Each structure stands twice: as C-alpha cells, then as structure tokens.
Amino acid sequence: MTEPVLSIRDLSVEIPTRKGIVCPVDSVSYDIAPGEILGVVGESGAGKSMAGNAVIGLLNPPARIAKGEIWLNGTRIDQLSGDAMRRLRGKEIGMVFQDPLTSLNPLLQIGDQLTETMLTHLDISRSEAEKRAIAALQEVGIPGAADRLNSYPHEFSGGMRQRVVIALALCAEPSLIIADEPTTALDVSVQAQIVALLKKLCRERGTAIMLITHDMGVIAEAADRVAVMYAGRLAELGPVREILTSPSHPYTDGLMASTPLASRGKSRLHQIPGSMPRLNAIPDGCAFNPRCPYAADKCRHDPGPQGVEGRAACWFPIVRERTA
Amino acid sequence: MLAYLIRRIGQSALVLLIVGLVAFAMFRFVGDPIDNMLGQERTQEDIDRLRGQLGLDQPFAVQYFRFLENAAQGNFGVSYRQGRPVSDILLERAPATLELAAVSGFLAIAMGIALGVFTAIRRNGFTANFIMSASLIGVSLPTFLIGILLIYIFSVELGWLPSFGRGETVRIGNWTTGFLTETGLKALVLPSITLGLYQMTLIMRLVRSEMLEVLRQDYIRFARARGLRDRVVNFRHALKNTMMPVITVIGLQLGSIIAFAIITETVFQWPGVGLLFINAIQFVDIPVMAAYLMLISVMFVGINLIVDILYFLIDPRLRADRAGAH
C-alpha cells in the first residue's frame, strides 16, 4: 500500500470549560491514501468538523489538541509553529467550507483572491499566477473563466461560488483537501455537480479528500472509505460498500436503517431512540450504550475496543452472512 | 452611478432648502431687529426707512425667496452688531475653525482606526485592554472639562503650550493660516486634542467592534485556511470590510467636530466661527446666526454626500451598472 497522505493517530481534542474539560474528539485514528476520498459521517456535534479543524491547525481557542499525532506526507504537523503551519495551509492542505455565500470576501475580485493565494505559496510571477487562475477556474467548470477574474463574489450563483471556493482551495495544488459539508448549503441538483467535481479532481490529480458530511447520499456517491463518528469517538471505519450494506456497529446500523431509500418504499423510517449525548454528559462505558438495542452490562462500564480499520468500536459487533 | 449621484444631490438640495426655511424663520420669530439696531432715540420715520431698506415690509414668501437668492450667492446680509457683511466676517473667521477641525479630524481618524485595529487584533493583550479602559475617559468626560484639564497641566503647571488664541498667523490671499509659524502650531495642539479626543475614542471603539465582528466571518476563516499571512488577512481582508460602517460614522463625526468646535473655541478663545456664533447669540445677531446655521448644514450635507460616494467606490455590490451575468 502506498504511504498515506494523511495519517491521524490517536487524536484527541479537548476544550476546557467552567464545568471541566470536554473532549469533542476522543482517540481517533484514520488514514487517507492519495487519490482517496474518505467520508467522515456523524450527527452534528459528533466531532467530525473538529477533527478536520485540528488537522489544518484552525481550532478555535480554547480548543486544543490534547494528545495524538497528525502526519502529513510523512511529516508530523501537529507540533509545528504557527507560521510553519500557516505555510502548510493552502499549499499542502486545502479547505472547502460549508457555505459558499459567506466563504468569499465580498469586496475582492475572485481573480485577486486566487492570485493572492498562489503568490503566497508559489514562487511565480503575477502574470503567471493570473494564467493559472484562469486555468483553475476552467478546471472547476466556470464558463468564460478569463472574463470572470474581475467579477466579485456576488455576481456568481451559489453553486458557482462553491466552484470558485474549490478552485481557491486547489490553486496551490495541495495534496489533501478537507471539505467540511461542501454540499450542505446547496440545492440538491447543484450538490450532485459539486460531488462529481470533487470526485473528478480527486481522480485526475491524485488529491486525497476528507469529505465531512452528514448526508449518507453524498457518502454513497463519492466516498471510497467511510469513518463513522459518534460523540467524538470513531465508531466504525471501512470501505464504503461494507459500511453501507453490512454495518457492524449498532449505531451505523441504526443510521443506515434511518436513511430514506427509494427501494424501501413508503414504509416508516427507522429511528434511533434518544439523541446523541452532550459532550459534558457522555455516559460511562460505550457512549452509545443508552440508545443501543444490544447493550449489555459490559457496555455500561467499559468503553470497548477502539474503532480501527475493519473493527467496530463495539463489544458485540453485528455479524452478517456475506452474500457475495 | 450618474442617476444615483443626481438623486443624492437632489435630496441634499431639499435638506438645504428646509434648513434655509428654519434659518429664515429666526428673523421673524426672534424679536424685531429694528429695536436692537436703532436703540431708544428713534422716530417712526427712521423705523419705516430702515424697514424698507432691509426689505422687512415685503410679504413672507417674497422675503424667503430673496433670502434664498442672496444665500445662494453667499450674501447673508449685514451683521446687526458689527455693521459689516456677514459673509466677510465668516470668511475671516472660517480658516481658524477649518484648520482646527482638519487637525483634530485627522488625529481622530488616524489614531482611532490605528488603535481600533490594534485592540481588535490583540484583543486579549494587556496593552489593548489598557487602551480600551483608557478610552472610556475619552468617551465619558465632557469636552470643556478635557480642555480645562489640558490647560491646567500643559499651560499652567508645565507652561509648555499656550492656553488661548491662535498664535501668530500668516496671511495667504484670503486665508490666514497658523500652520506656518511656531506659535501657530503650538497653539493648535491643545484645542485639537480637546476637540478630537471624543471622536477618536468613538471611532476606535467602533472600529474595534466592527473588526471583531468581521474577524468572525467565514471568509476570514477561509482566508486563514488558504494560508494567507496574518498581515494580509487583517489589513487586506478584514479592514476593508470593517470600513463600510465606519465611514458613515466618520462622516457624521466630522460634521459634529465642526459643530462641537463651539465649545472648544470658547474654552480656548479660538477666533473661529464657533466663538463668533456664541457671541452672536448673546447679541441676538440673527444674520450671523442664520449664516452659521446654513454653513454647518452645508458642511453636514456635503460630508454625507461624499460618504455616500465613498460607499459606492468601496462596495462593488452597490455598483449596479457593472453587475455580471450569472
């Protein structure tokens, strides 16, 4: 196997609060290989965005990395100084945010925003940067790219703006893109286009993508592997087909059963009883145990194994007959 | 752009017409100036003659129209007290006030923006917190008290700076300037600090809160995620967005610097239009008061017009004429 672009080892993020320290990301480990899309799913507050922010070094204080290691292309990056980390942002790690309407500076032309990013990271002339800006806009599918350099963000539609945001994240050719809910704020029809665009860039350039979302449809469409997060912990990690068709963690199982599918007809959707615990009230043992239909005594006292590739974070994983 | 400009100028003209009506109404409601001008020893003949001379026997509408016509030509009649054309007196006094206002306005804007940005970027630093606390003094102390305190410290105790007047001035054409002599510059220091301090702290606190708001925006986060240098993020991305609301307030504040000059000019006996106005009130010198009112409103309206145009230049979203295709 090729060396992973990103490797997270036993990462924890903590936030000191008045009522003690809470842990939005708790001992999470996963890898992303070149040209691979890792889907990170979970409910709001499961810690999926927080992990992404930790990787790019943009945790909002007082949140901080408590333990663990982050490796990018064989270099450890979680202990880098502020300025060294800044040089990495944009150049090695690109980020796409949720809302394209607010991600772009309304007072600067998009050409300027593109060239300033490239001139910060690459040793090229201004005219070369402009040429590359046009190429970048063409690559993300903006018609008449050369004429749009002088346009302001408000002159683009939402989907087009998200394409511009992706062009900005990609323009210094990073090896990893963190896409934090990139389709959530878009129309369904535009969502599919943006997902297709991310997939295309990933294939053509070999860029690794961390696709953070709560939309199972987007995961099924785009991801190669899936990491399922629950209450800051990794519940399950594996190839997308396996997770979608034969989940082994009861939480993933419940999540799948509650995703509407055309094939399932009009029957009532499954619902996981209760809701995800708040960070300051995570139960002892397995965080999912109060909602789990299979919970036993053991689950209430011992958190269970850590979730890793091919092994769910569960004492009693669901085992299915493979119908291959 | 042109249509927008014409509309704004039209609105400005309307405001000035209304202010003109108020200024003119003063003549009719604040006593009979004839009494003041002729004193005790007068005959009915004198009264009628003067009334005819000043046009006070004409109907209201005719008088108002003549007032506007004269005002538009810069003719505000003759000062009751000094017996000279009001426009001459104002022109003579205006440089003192304008120089004072320019220096304090510049101080307030430059220092206000610089300190505001500093306290926003270093919002948890000791220096920033100290500046924020100190700025409360500037906001809460009344202007005249600051002036008197400064006079006490720098003129009475230390004897470094003059406590009143403009110092020596140099005459260039119709303009008398205090910028070219040492005593003139020294005399400017205390009044301009007094006049500008409130505006400076106001601008500083406004810039700080606007900047903190802007720094929370997604596009700032995205700019950081693209690895842009802090300097670029703070000054190119954040400051420009901060300036939008700040410019409006700065515009209004510049107007009130000229209006507030009345107090500062009184404290420092500064020979400007503010002091002239105070003296005019004491003598019910209505032509001077009316002219002062018109002058201040022209300045306010003019500054607001400039602010609107600046808005237009800074924010591309207002420039409707260059909207691109979707």
Low-pLDDT runs of 5+ residues of chain A are none
Relative strand content of chain A: 15-25%
What is the count of structural domains of chain B? 2
Given helix and strand content, the structural type of chain B is mainly alpha
Q: Which parts of chain B are unreliable, with pLDDT below 50 for 5 consecutive residues or more?
A: 321-326
Mind describing the biggest β-sheet of chain A? 6 strands, mixed
What is the strand and helix layout of this fold?
The complex is a heterodimer of chains A (324) and B (326).
Chain A: E1 6-17, E2 20-32, E3 37-41, H1 48-56, E4 64-72, E5 75-76, H2 82-88, E6 93-96, H3 100-103, H4 110-121, H5 126-139, H6 145-148, H7 158-170, E7 176-180, H8 188-205, E8 208-212, H9 216-222, E9 225-230, E10 233-239, H10 240-245, H11 250-257, H12 297-301
Parallel strand pairs in A: 3-8, 3-9, 6-7, 7-8
Antiparallel strand pairs in A: 1-2, 1-4, 4-5, 9-10
Chain B: H1 2-29, H2 33-38, H3 44-54, H4 60-72, H5 86-121, H6 126-140, H7 143-157, E1 170-172, E2 175-177, H8 182-215, H9 218-225, H10 230-267, H11 273-282, H12 286-314
Antiparallel strand pairs in B: 1-2
Question: Could you walk me through the main structural features you see in this protein, from its secondary elements to its overall organization?
Answer:
The complex is a heterodimer of chains A (324) and B (326). With 324 residues, chain A is α/β, with parallel strands linked by helices. Chain A contains 12 helices and 10 strands. The longest helix of chain A is centred in the middle third of the chain and has 18 residues, at 188-205. The longest helix of chain B has 38 residues, at 230-267. In chain B, helix 5 (86-121) packs antiparallel against helix 6, helix 10 runs parallel beside helix 11 and helix 11 packs antiparallel against helix 12 (286-314). Chain B is built from 12 helices and 2 strands, in the order αααααααββααααα. Chain B is globular and about 85 Å long. Chain B has helices spanning 2-29, 33-38, 44-54, 60-72, 86-121, 126-140, 143-157, 182-215, 218-225, 230-267, 273-282, 286-314; strands spanning 170-172, 175-177. Chain B has 2 domains: 2-72, no CATH class; 86-325, MetI-like fold (Orthogonal Bundle). Residues 321-326 of chain B have low confidence and may be disordered. Classes of the chains: A alpha/beta (324), B mainly alpha (326). The A-B interface holds A 56, 58, 86-91, 94-95, 97, 99, 102-109, 116-117, 120-121, 148, 151-152, 154-157, 160, 165, 168-169, 172 and B 217-219, 221-230, 232, 236-237, 240-241, 314-317, 323-326.
